Amino acid sequence: MAVSSRRLQKELTEIKTAGTPCGITLLKADDFQTWFLSLEVLGESQYKGEVFALMFRFDPQYPISAPAVQFVVDDKYKAPLHPHVYSNGHICASILGGEWSPVLSVIAVCITLQSMLASCKEKKRPPDNDRYVAHAPDNPKKTRFVYHESDSAAAP
Amino acid sequence: MSNSTTIFEVDNVPDPTDFPSTDVAPGLRELDEALRCSICGELFQAPLTVSCGHCFCSLCIRTQLAVKAECPLCRQSTSEFYLRKAQTVEDAVKAWNIARPYILQLCREEERRKAPVTPPLVDEGIEFRSPKKRKRSSTPDDEVVEIPKPTSSKNAQRSGLSPTPASGSSTPQVVPCPVCQRQVSYSIINQHLDQGCKSTSDFETGSSSSGSKGKQKQDWRKLFSAGEGSTSSGNKGKGKLKTKAKVDDDASPIPKVAYHTLKEKRLREMLADHDLPNNGDKDTLIKRHERWALLYNANLDRTPTDRLTLEDLRRELKKWETERQTKRQAVTDLNAYQKANKAAFNQLVEAARPKKPPTKLPQSDSPMSLNEVEEVPGSSSLTALSSPAPDPTVIVVDEE
Which UniProt keywords are given for this protein, alphabetically ordered (chain B) (predicted)? Predict the structure, then answer.
């Protein structure tokens, strides 16, 4: 069994025995390629009462290579209105790209994104949203994002 | 890779949650966790420490350092040069590999023993201890063992897990062993359990301690010699029989290669030197040799007796390559794919055109094309490694 599958199996067992942190629930994990989790920011925040869904896609190099993570955009779910989240669900977050570390896990990513939403002060799209969404590849991992230290979006 | 059914086939990937939670069996999960590589989640295989002191499997950290030269846990910058063998950790893992199934079995037995006790409580309690002792031990901790109430069942399980001789040493009595069900003197039940219930009659009747000590020594010796000879049997079948040729003690690691300076012919020779297939294009050859060097060098980080044979390594390499190839098929079909989907591509081009001047470079599918596009080292090579299939929109722009 491949390393990636074994590692994901372990994460799944962990989720099933220890449970998920508050506001995070496992929606679907039927294989070792695509998982869905729901995300909610609890407490006072810009996103009070909103529920989002995250899609994780794994390749055989996981966890050496980062999973492709994006918000689900369909009839039921929308991408959160956030300066780092494009309307197609793609996320500009350093840990999903160059700052990924193989010791991170699906749950660790969820927690990071949860706190990214929780700390948001102004609900708005990234400044280049329309242009990006028009040409964005299907897989956000093929995008080369430029990360900024500030949380004030990836504005030039 | 795996398909949707795989997840149900593999319910048997060991991990720390195999052990009961901390309130039932304190420290066991943590111990199991501590002996696992945080990259692959397996018990350490040929553990290496990085300069910051964190420990990983040799293959895991070597693969990761080739992508990014920092510790995955604390992000301190480091390199292959600073990797050191963690011999003590390897020994600990080796012992744990042997002890783990045994301790798991003990935990299960304990659970089974506890389960019936809880509902019909009093009867079982009497069998274990004399009335006299029950009266004597009136501390709350001891009480819960005998009269396990639902509210304090956690405590009961904990104190029951390690029946210390201290609590019953003054009155030696015979109890059924929780594992083998044989009648064993309570004062020596621990030794009996430690020896895997193999103790002979003199043990069960609780004879002189000097005799039992001699026996213990013997058993330890047996344990250790077994450990040296055939640890591999406990090692998830990774170890091999002694008869098979292992990699020599004095074998030296494969040095780094500046692949771009080499001709394809030389690459093929290098692969042939290691009895590896040398077909495929240059990129395939490089990837194959890179991976081989990783596998080979990681194998050298194992204790010589635990090393895999070159045959095993070649099999590993082949497995890895097949995995990559299934992913690569998208690339080989590219031309056909392009032709088949030409209409769809053209549509996309039309959709994209009004917003995007045709002078743009192909790479401008990056969202931040206004910004200077920064090459994040590692991430690009990663992308190349993991997803060789180029994004359709890029192809279209290329065609234009």
Answer: DNA damage, DNA repair, DNA-binding, Metal-binding, Nucleus, Transferase, Ubl conjugation pathway, Zinc, Zinc-finger
Chain A residue numbers touching B344 (CB-CB < 8 A):
none
Subunit contact A13:B15, Cβ cutoff 8 A: yes
* Closest residue to B374, CB basis, from A66, A135, A146: A146
Architecture of domain A3-155 in this structure: Roll (3.10)
Cα-trace Rg, chain B: 30
Task: Flag the least confident range among A18-27, B49-58, B245-254.
Answer: B245-254
Chain A interface includes B115 (CB < 8 A): no
Which of A146, A145, A138, A143 is closest to A34 using CA atoms? A138
What pLDDT, in 10s, does the model give residues B299-314?
998 888 888 899 999 9
Q: What is the pTM of this model?
A: 0.60
Residue A54 pLDDT level (bands cut at 50, 70, 90): very high
Alpha helix stretches (DSSP H) within chain B: 6-9, 28-34, 58-67, 87-117, 121-128, 131-136, 140-146, 153-161, 189-194, 201-204, 209-230, 264-273, 282-300, 310-332, 334-340, 342-352, 379-386, 392-399
Interface ipTM:
0.83
A137 vs B10, B39, B391: nearest CB = B391
